[in-house]
């Protein structure tokens, strides 16, 4: 029990924390604002009066700390400060409902508190990764209610990370991993760079404590030397800046522990070899009209004194990042031959960089320009609403799009579009409009034709060539990187498969009729079992592309009419007793029966690893081991994370594919007598043969004789045979042979 003196002392500390909260607010609070915050504070104190945190302190210090972060670090308004104070009330105290909050504080606060309560209840069951991903997706759906929900949630997470010392180690690791996996990328995307940095550093502190403290101590050791270096750097340019009558401050800023660690890993270097461990920030006073002019003026002063690295100039003033970040970054050769990153920002830009979203609103009153965060939320909604992808894919895709650096490309008319780094012309096409994407035939970059897999660079001008007859094919998934493009291509391929399946169904009806069998549910089920397929659509599709031909159907018919029938019945009844899991395993195995590696999808020798025993159909990757060649691991194998982080260069893409749907290339040699129009006849035959593509074609004529070489892509052998038969029928063709 606490003594009266201790209780009094604690109450005084709570009152002081409350007063500080009002002082630190980044906005000027009106009397109404103060009343609202006071009321929220009183409700929170009462609701949490019985609660203590793991560390033993009164629970109310947590909501106050979160509200303080929301007010000071993020700069949100009184409504959000009140919501932050109340964020755990409904969840922790059964006497309060969302309705009560709405009656007391109005609709907006209630919507935010409800969003936060939803997220907390989801996190209770976040043990399993796929569950966690699904919950993360739901959590992002709360963006729909109000983006401030996510912002307060990030502040809540930051305070939890700052006060996690008294938790069990396993809890610490779980929370820290989730922070690195979800919250740091979110903070980054919303433009909360300071918070992102702190979340990453704290995440590292609990996931890899030795590494964290090692780097932290080294930073402390070299602090004096760094301060001295930055003082020397400043002295050299201050005179010139003062001469121009500029008002500015220069700050040195060490790089975050997390980013130093990332550099060490990425470049395989030690702490001492990381060359730009700190940045110099020049923050200048300016009115809006002269901002840009002054930034470049400071740039020219800095580069008069120090030689710039031309490859490392980043101009985010002319085209800000989509998070709203604006600054000019240059890396220069400073004193003692060391590279230093210099960041040039006005006070306004600096505030936006530190507070992100909130500062935007402060500067954008009366400005109707679409807010980049709103655009981002709209894009995110689109990705969330397309349920094509499963949750884990979605999270991975989402993280890719979050962390990826951006590039800026131009439309033919000169409009600027922002895309993630490594985007291709296909991503650009789908970014303009789904219809443009679907009808893409080719692309020109800076006036030159490029393949659809071409990686775009900032400043490229992209012109998409479309045609009504073009439609997505499976290769497009190798070329598209953005979530939107991939989602649309996948659903188009499904549609395509369906339409081929419809044709296939009619062909099957005809062929079965000749074998005196009716096409009905029973015969379809038997055929699906006979060919070890998964669904009737797979069956119709294979008939449609000719993968199941007459001979195969005949062998099915004879199996029906002879002794195999009894065997078949047994098999079907036996299967009924087999567990559902085994059945699915068998179906998947029979469907995805071929393992291919790399972007080229080559067949290579491999071994299945014992640690996770992958089976056909699993998501896998190849690992090039020293003694045993390629070992195949599941993507969620317990060793996957360490292999992928420590030996990224030895990882090779791998996937199981359905061998009957795999496209193969074959070369045909033709010879005969040269006729007028023979080339036309040949190409006509090929293009009228469904699902055959020409990869390359060359013809020669010599004294009335004709010879040609064709490289074609076909789905299977029977298609190729059909093509050869049809080519032989052409007038003048004497021989067609496969190489």
From TrEMBL:
GO MF annotations, alphabetized: GTP diphosphokinase activity
Recorded superkingdom: Bacteria
Keywords from the named record: Transferase
Entry EC no(s): 2.7.6.5
All copies of domain TGS, residue ranges: 405-466
GO CC annotation terms, alphabetical: plasma membrane
GO biological process: guanosine tetraphosphate metabolic process
Family: Belongs to the relA/spoT family.
Protein name: GTP pyrophosphokinase
Organism of this sequence: Formosa algae
